[in-house]
């Protein structure tokens, strides 16, 4: 790999690491933010939801914008926006300023992330070189979520505003290096002949309403009518979007791309993967901090073992993919995750960390064997001028799954806890909520098995795709 290509990969990995660490650090700092600014529980929840709405709502539009308007241009522009509004969050003295800052930061990430992914898939030729680059990229992304918990705890000890200022410094450094280093890939990108405004409005509105509905599942006591209305409105706009795209001369999303079986299966498994992981991570955090009394830093260090994929993804996973193919590696990773969650079902109030460690390490294996290969499958074989769209789809699935997993375990945990507040009642509720990650992983493994059997019937060789 040429030195310049390594440099481009390092910059893009830095950006996805920034996105992951930004989310994780904020979650750790929320109690300190509420104490300092006097925010209500609803406002504090809104700060988190604002980012999710911006990210999930604009991801598909961001992916297509990279294809139509230029990947380098979109990446650099929205990295700059990310920098500015991250800084705004650090200077906030009112809750509404934080809401605006987090929403626009989420929108910036929604445009920046698929542009970065498509820069990789169009810079590196399809095959082993691209696979290795994607696996390094995926491992870095997962590492950002894991390391962000530890770094967020350390920065919050200095002051919660550093959770916002640290991404400003990091994004400024990435931007300074990216401007001279990254070039627009020479691809068969179709010239812009018209912009599908109706498609952009309907898909963005649909995604925002669906994500909002999922977020509201965390608060079942707030009233189901609004939640049902959000889902109904989202589905209605989704149907309107499909109608618009069929009639549009320059569709925002070519619906024919969804006829790819590997792409659809990869996106379904991506949503189920992050639903299980983020749901499990949330439950473990509750267990360690609320039931066991561990500090934020201790909790982050405990979850650090799950970041083993940072090492495994660029080293062991490429060898396994080349030898066995993506489908078998993904299935093996999902089975590792299923075993991890199954082992944790027996968690007790007197468990030592040694008893938890096998689950943490197996979670790291799952992410190393599933996250990157799914990204490969979702972008492999897609035309160059639709790589941004493919990147937007897979990242939307990851984001939507994370929101769904968090909402599901929260709703189950609250319902199971009922009016009891004893540690034993909390432990029982936590074990009940663990059913959600187990179920999501089982479904993902079933989809992986179907994909493996389909591939076996259609080819006698072991191709790169799952």
TrEMBL record:
Bilayer-spanning residue ranges: 42-62, 74-92, 98-122, 134-156, 162-182, 194-214, 226-245, 266-288, 300-322, 329-349, 355-377, 398-418, 430-452
All copies of domain Major facilitator superfamily (MFS) profile, residue ranges: 8-457
InterPro entries hit by this protein: MFS (IPR011701), MFS_dom (IPR020846), MFS_trans_sf (IPR036259)
Recorded topology in the membrane: Multi-pass membrane protein
Molecular function per GO: transmembrane transporter activity
Keyword Transmembrane: yes
GO CC terms: plasma membrane
Keywords, in A-Z order: Cell membrane, Membrane, Transmembrane, Transmembrane helix, Transport
Metal-binding listed as a keyword: no
Compartments reported by the entry: Cell membrane
Gene3D superfamilies registered for this protein in UniProt: MFS general substrate transporter like domains, Multidrug resistance protein D
CDD domains: MFS_MMR_MDR_like (cd17321)
Protein's recorded name: MFS transporter
Species of provenance: Nonomuraea turkmeniaca
């Amino acid at each position: 790999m040429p030195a310049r290509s390594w440099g481009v990969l390092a910059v893009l990995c830095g950006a996805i690491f920034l996105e992951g660490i930004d989310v994780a650090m904020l979650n750790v700092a929320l109690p300190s933010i509420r104490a300092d600014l006097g925010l209500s529980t609803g406002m504090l929840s809104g700060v988190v939801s604002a980012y999710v709405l911006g990210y999930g709502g604009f991801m598909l539009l961001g992916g297509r914008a990279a294809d139509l308007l230029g990947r380098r241009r979109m990446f650099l522009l929205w990295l700059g926006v990310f920098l500015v509004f991250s800084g705004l969050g650090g200077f906030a003295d009112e809750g509404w300023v934080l809401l605006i800052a987090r929403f626009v930061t989420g929108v910036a990430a929604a445009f920046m992330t698929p542009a970065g992914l498509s820069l990789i898939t169009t810079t590196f030729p399809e095959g082993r070189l691209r696979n290795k680059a994607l696996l390094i990229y995926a491992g870095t992304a997962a590492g950002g979520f894991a390391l962000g918990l530890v770094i967020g705890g350390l920065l919050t000890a200095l002051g919660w505003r550093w959770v916002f200022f640290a991404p400003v410094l990091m994004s400024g450094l990435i931007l300074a290096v990216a401007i001279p280093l990254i070039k627009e890939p020479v691809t068969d990108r179709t010239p812009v002949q018209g912009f599908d405004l109706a498609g952009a409005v309907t898909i963005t509105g649909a995604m925002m309403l669906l994500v909002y509905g999922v977020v509201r599942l965390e608060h079942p006591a707030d009233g189901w009518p609004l939640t049902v209305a959000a889902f109904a409105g989202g589905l209605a706009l989704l149907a309107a979007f499909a109608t618009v795209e069929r009639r549009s001369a320059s569709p925002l999303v070519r619906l024919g791309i969804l006829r790819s079986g590997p792409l659809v299966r990869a996106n379904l498994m991506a949503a189920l993967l992050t639903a299980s992981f983020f749901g499990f991570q949330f439950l473990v955090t509750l267990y360690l901090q609320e039931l066991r009394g561990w500090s934020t830093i201790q909790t982050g260090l405990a979850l650090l073992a799950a970041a083993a994929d940072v090492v495994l993804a660029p080293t062991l996973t490429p060898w396994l993919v080349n030898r066995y193919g993506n489908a078998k590696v993904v299935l093996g990773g999902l089975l590792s995750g299923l075993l991890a969650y199954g082992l944790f079902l027996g968690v007790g109030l007197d468990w030592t960390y040694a008893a938890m460690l096998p689950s943490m390490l197996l979670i790291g294996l799952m992410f190393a064997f599933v996250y990157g290969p799914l990204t490969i499958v979702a972008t492999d074989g897609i035309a160059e001028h639709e790589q941004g769209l493919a990147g937007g789809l897979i990242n939307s699935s990851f984001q939507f799954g994370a929101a769904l997993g968090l909402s599901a375990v929260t709703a189950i945990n609250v319902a199971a806890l009922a009016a009891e507040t004893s540690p034993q009642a909390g432990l029982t509720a936590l074990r009940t909520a663990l059913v959600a990650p187990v179920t999501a992983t089982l479904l993902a493994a079933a989809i992986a098995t179907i994909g493996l059997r389909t591939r076996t019937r259609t080819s006698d060789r072991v191709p790169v795709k799952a």
